[in-house]
Amino acid sequence: LAGGPSVAIVVLPQASASEDRGLASAQMFRNTGARHVDVVELDDRDAARSKIESARLIWFPGGSQSKLYDALDKAELVDLIRARHEAGVVFGGTSAGAAVMSDVMIPTSPAKPALRVGNTPIKRGLGLTPTLIVDQHFVERQRMTRLLSAVLDHPQQLGVGISERTAILVHKDTIQVLGDGSVVIIDPRSAGVAVPNAGQLQSARNLQIHVLKAGDQYKFDANK
Questions:
Q1: What's the Cα-to-Cα distance from 179 to each of 60, 136, 171, 183, rounded to whole Å?
Q2: Which residues pair with 39 in a beta bridge?
């Protein structure tokens, strides 16, 4: 998708606080034959900006999606990231690196699971998938309630829960599923979603829920 093994790949590892952050991701790409992979820290903003501008693939490893977004925002790189996405640069990420691509981003789990207004925490993400609320480790960590609550709070969005060792490839208005596990899509956009006050129980009728596996595709209207 990015152009082959000779393209420049940038790993932005700021979701993690580990001393060796990003190195495993860089090695992953080198193992596939990539010849130009850089793990980019943000201490030198000009150097970081230059590498991001020349990259054809940008990868976000796991950790904390809030930590990643805040680091990019503090370094004044969020607009550049969005511009590179608009220019056709391929973006990918795992765990927090997938969640951060949402515009309506789930930064963490609520204190207690509940289908109540405002129960699932929300922050702004990078907005590379502006119609999708992406949640990760979805089946393994039983995150249906937090994603469903987030979707009911934002019924113009689709919720996308991705299992481990599983990926979605998003191109324009199509989601393609890859990997070993399941992807759950919650589409509330044609449903009757009640709008109660903060803290009250949520309710909805005629939600659409889709469960997909590798090879399945789902088309959605990104402008709906």
A1: 18, 14, 17, 10
A2: 11
Residue 47 DSSP SS3? helix
Is-contact 219 173, C-beta < 8 A?
Answer: yes
Buried b (16+ CB within 10 A) or exposed e, 139-176: beeebbbbbbbbbbbbbebbbbbbbeebbbebeeeebb
Helix (H, G, I), strand (E, B) or coil at 219: strand
210 alpha carbon, distance to own chain's centre: 19
pLDDT confidence of residue 223? 60
- Integer angstrom CA distances of residue 183 from 58, 210, 216: 23, 8, 10
One-letter-per-residue 3-state SS of 105-169? ECCCCCCCCCCECCCCCCEECCCCECCEEEEECCCCCCCHHHHHHHHHHCCCCEEEEECCCEEEE
Opening angle at CA 128, ends 124 and 129, nearest 5: 90
CA distance 154 to 134: 13
User: What pLDDT digit, counting tens, does each position of 148-187 carry?
Assistant: 999 999 999 999 999 999 999 999 899 999 999 999 999 9
In this structure, the strands spanning 57-60 and 104-105 are: unpaired
Q: What is residue 86's three-state secondary structure?
A: helix
* 72 contacts 127 by C-beta, under 8 angstroms: no
Give the position of tokens 């990643």.
68
Among 20, 31, 47, residue whose Cα is nearest residue 10: 47
Question: What was the pLDDT predicted at 224?
Answer: 55
**Statement: the pTM of the whole predicted model exceeds 0.90:** yes
Tokens for 54, please give them: 């020349």
